[in-house]
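Example (one chain per record):
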Amino acid sequence: MNEKNSLGLNKCFLDSDDPFKLFESWFAEAKKREINDPNALALGTATKKGVPSVRMVLLKDYNKDGFVFYTNLNSQKGNEIKENPNATMCFHWKSLLRQIRIAGTLSSVSDQTADEYYNSRAYESRIGAWASKQSSILKNRDELLETLKDYRKKFADKNNVPRPSHWSGWNLKPNSIEFWLDGDNRIHERLKYSFIDGKWMKSLLSP
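Predicted structure:
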């Protein structure tokens, strides 16, 4: 019989009032067992009029201030975020039969933070940030390949590729974090943390 926590949930939910502690525990397990990109998440954004879109991005940092990813600021998601900072994230780890949903508001990371991460990237990834006008229409693939070639010439010194001003990071500051565990016969286990009046409150949710 599976061990339970004080709420009657599987012991993997721990017994913590801190959702970041639980996220850290689940993320550590995912990094051990998920075959590809345990830091992959579905990011949902919306236009000013509320028209939604979703895509996969990679989590690059997290702490009690939020969850960070990087992108071209002029991409579709970048433009949507500028006009509507409300967003959601969903991690799904099939190997663990678990998912985490996070909702909150996005704000840009500092230039220093963006520079530090950008400079840690591989040379070709840094060049790609310059060459790709993300989400814009290409006449053909060769157009992109030629632009990549041009930027390799421009920034031939692999140790000196400045971060383009249109490329940076966003931090999602959560107001709710929900943890989900697959259950037999669709009787899943769900625990939601909501940030209310300056503190995190826990609620059990029906499957």
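Caption: The chain has one domain: 11-121+168-205.
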